[in-house]
Amino acid sequence: MSKRCRPLISWYLFPILMLFTTVEYADAQNRVRIVQSDRLEGVETEDGRIRKLIGDVRLETDDFTIVCDSAWQYLDLDELVAYGNISIESDREQIWSDKATYDLDSEVTLFEGRVVMQSENALLFSEEVFYSFATEIALFPEYLRLEDDRGVLVADSGYYYNALDSAIFRGNVQIADSLQYIEADSVFTNREDEYYELYGRVFLDDEENRTRLTGAFVLADSTGYRRVEGGSRMRRVNEAETDTTYLWSDWLEVHQRDTINTFTAYDDVHIWTESYSSLSDTAHYDDATEQFILEGGGPRLWYEDMQLTGPHILIQMEEDSVRFLEAVNRPFAVQRDTALNRLNQITGDTLYIQFRDGAVSYMDSYPQGHVLYFVKESDGNPDGAIDVTADFIRLLFNEGELDSVIARQNVDGTYISEHPEIADRTLDGFAWDPEFRPQRPDERMEQRLPPIPDERPFEPPPLFLEARREE
Question: Which domains are present in the chain?
């Protein structure tokens, strides 16, 4: 799947073309049949002949029935205007409004006032709606509200495809489902399939998984897949709400299946947690194994006063704490001795770092291990360094500080006496750049729009309320 967003330009042009497509009929005027009217008048005006139907009006076309207080039929313009307490019902939808202007040739109707549209899957509210009975496409040029069994959607404008249960919404789009909140500048969605494409200033709050996402583009579907592009940001809170993970990258993929979550972040990936931070080209996490894997771009990981650098770093979590780190292919670890303000160094083909109670317990290097560590006298003053190579080296720590070193097999060691330049001594592959360590982001990742109102934008028309009471 391509990582780059390809806007669905056709979806933006298609509704405009389809909505106003003219349908030719041999005798369009005969398609309106008068079923009931208390009074009928005929007048001649500058707009041509008008047939006025007044009082308890009921009309039929080939596709729907119209109930209203009154209607004017412009015989020479092939246009019908209905007024007051309007209800239009077809096989697939029912629409209520205060005014409706129906073009018999195109079968496009302009609804005005308090407009409520009921499809098989949703209720839509707006004060102006163009609807094509031929294509079953609705255009909402003004603020609209959509309600269905999953929640509420509001936007400044939009298109709704009744036959496909799909829609395009634009301007301050907000979606509130039972367990998530979404906002964006524009949205393409199929609500039935739970498929969304979100464009521009996207914010997604997944309360069930305690995760928030932001970006320029988000794709989300019913399988639990999310793709975030254009400067992705993720904030995730652990189940106990005691730890927060921030991740930001160029783009991000998230998979959610039941209670298991996995994600992979790509390109300039930054991670910040309460206990560690990291940089890499790629970062992958799996809830099932509680493992982070950092790869590409010389991944770097910082934990308290330690920096670990290597082409492949595995972070094993346990109950939201780091249990161990494992790095391969000649990684390099640096641990700052806070008492001496010097940098202990260890490298090898593989590095394994075990933690206990949130602090480093020991580091293993094997094979071809190499360590440079600094020593001090009993009074705490620096006393040179020891350079050791061996097939296996273990560094033991006590309360985060190096306590002792164990070396086995093919051991070769050198003591280096104290001198002014010894603090600058490094091993091949040395990497220490704490200035690049990611810090907790300042941005709060909060929604920018006011909450969706609980109330509908207007009191619905009486015939709508009556129909709802009868259900």
Answer: 15-142 (2.60.450.10), 147-274 (2.60.450.10), 276-442 (2.60.450.10)
